[in-house]
Amino acid sequence: VQLVESGGGLVQAGGSLRLSCAASGSTFSINAMAWYRQAPGKQRELVATITWAGGSSTNYADSVKGRFTISRDNTKNTMYLQMNSLKPEDTAVYYCNAWVVAGIDYWGKGTLVTVSS
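User: That's the sequence. What structure does it adopt?
Assistant: Structure tokens below.
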């Protein structure tokens, strides 16, 4: 499975961005996908998750609940992250993750989101 993120950039606080993650390869093997982020000098943290098949079950980190929305379009093999009401503390490299089975997952190279105050 190959993952390519896009949509990052520079935005002012209070603004919005939509990230995309395009999956290719053995996408049939994906069970769930997620967005992670890593701010400078900090550990990578989970932002949101979504199941890949069937109903879209989602989960969010407390820090983004009510502001971010994760979604997917299986016809395009693409996952999205709509980010609203952005804050400077949302500044990070955002990574796409695809989980296949325990011990097997894949990562994109990341897309940088910078929120200015």
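The mean pLDDT is 96.
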